[in-house]
Design a protein that fits this description.
This protein is α+β, with helices and mostly antiparallel strands and about 140 residues long. It folds into two domains: about 30 residues; about 100 residues, Lipocalin (Beta Barrel), CATH 2.40.128.270. Helices cover about 30% and strands about 35% of the residues. The protein has three helices and eight strands, in the order ααβββββαβββ. It has an eight-stranded antiparallel beta sheet with strand order 5-4-3-2-1-8-7-6. The relative contact order is 0.15.
Length: about 140
């Protein structure tokens, strides 16, 4: 009888330990990281040849957003919830760039309009949708 009780006790302890590892503090902290409103987010990409510019986005608490593409810049409106996000761009300010940069701007802007979700892991914010976009939180 005592053996059976000890086996059950160890089995319960094992199950509880396994469950506790699934909800570790680091996982809870990661899941509860807020969206970094008011911070510059830089696209995880190398600059195009001949330029040091890398696309950035900044979304304020009220949803107003500033987007710097490879060439052009524009204002947008963003709606951010717990894990959902939508971005509705305004008109791009005219910029004189080569056709390659203009094409990359159009591709990136299209990808931004198709994002549906976001997740944060420390300094990295990933926008999910048809084309996942990875940004780094600028901390300097």
């Amino acid at each position: 009888m005592l053996r059976l009780w000890l086996r059950r006790g160890f089995a319960c302890a094992f199950v509880l330990a396994a469950f506790a590892s699934l909800i570790s503090p680091s996982r809870l902290a990661q899941a509860s990281q807020p969206f970094p409103f008011g911070s510059e987010l830089m696209l995880d990409a190398a600059p195009m040849p001949g330029s040091r510019r890398v696309p950035m986005i900044e979304i304020e608490d009220d949803g107003t957003a500033s987007i710097d593409l490879w060439c052009a810049s524009l204002k947008a409106q963003a709606t951010v919830d717990n894990s959902a996000i939508t971005i509705v761009p305004g008109s791009a300010q005219p910029a004189q760039c080569d056709p390659d940069r203009q094409a990359r701007d159009a591709d990136l802007l299209s990808a931004l309009t198709q994002v549906t979700g976001w997740r944060r892991s420390g300094e990295v914010i990933e926008l999910t949708g048809a084309t996942p976009l990875r940004f780094h939180l600028m901390t300097n």
